[in-house]
């Protein structure tokens, strides 16, 4: 590698540097003096582009802010929980039920019981259900909320959740 070659920031920047902005309301000042304010939905680590979301009159507006045009970023509001739930609801498929915290906790416990009944090792980590160290089930704990790199385990656990007896669950 020659001395003039630059290493892309994705190889040198700590992901926590990007994550410090996610779900927070920020003000981004551009080099041309223009200012954008909004809630950061995500930051693309490759292009270093910020996705800002604003809510105006029950409508959503998004802006893409490219890092190369940015001169400064200021956090205006760091109420992550309020912004996270608001944004996550936007990007869920139609017909998605807005579960209360109690409903989600109940669903988590019912699924955990079902999996334990089927002799699978289960651990709860916050709102995530880890199964056999090879699969994670995210809220609202349906078969399509399973994540695994092992297709066989994924299919088996999804099938087990689909076949959970109706007296075992309330959904």
Task: Provide a compact summary of the structure.
This protein is an alpha+beta fold. It has helices at 15-19, 80-90, 101-117, 151-162, and strands at 25-30, 35-44, 49-56, 59-66, 70-77, 122-125, 128-131, 135-137, 146-147.
Report what the structure shows:
The protein is an alpha+beta fold and 171 residues long. The protein folds into two domains: 9-90, SH3 type barrels (Roll); 101-162. 26% of the residues lie in helices and 31% in strands. The protein is built from four helices and nine strands. The strands form two sheets. A five-stranded antiparallel sheet has the order 4-3-2-1-5, covered by helices on one side. A four-stranded antiparallel sheet has the order 6-7-8-9, covered by helices on one side. It is elongated, with a radius of gyration of 21 Å.
Write the CATH architecture name of the largest domain.
Answer: Roll
Number of domains: 2
As for the CATH topology of the largest domain, it is: SH3 type barrels
Number of strands: 9
**What is the end-to-end distance?**
57 Å
Structural class: alpha+beta
Given this structure, which CATH class of the largest domain is correct?
Mainly Beta
As laid out across the biggest beta sheet, the strand order is 4-3-2-1-5
Rg, nearest Å: 21 Å
pLDDT < 50 runs, ≥5 residues: none
Biggest beta-sheet profile: 5 strands, antiparallel
- Overall pLDDT level: 86
Give the helices and strands as they follow along the chain: HEEEEEHHEEEEH
Helix content: 25-40%
Number of helices: 4
Shape: elongated
Q: How much strand?
A: 25-35%
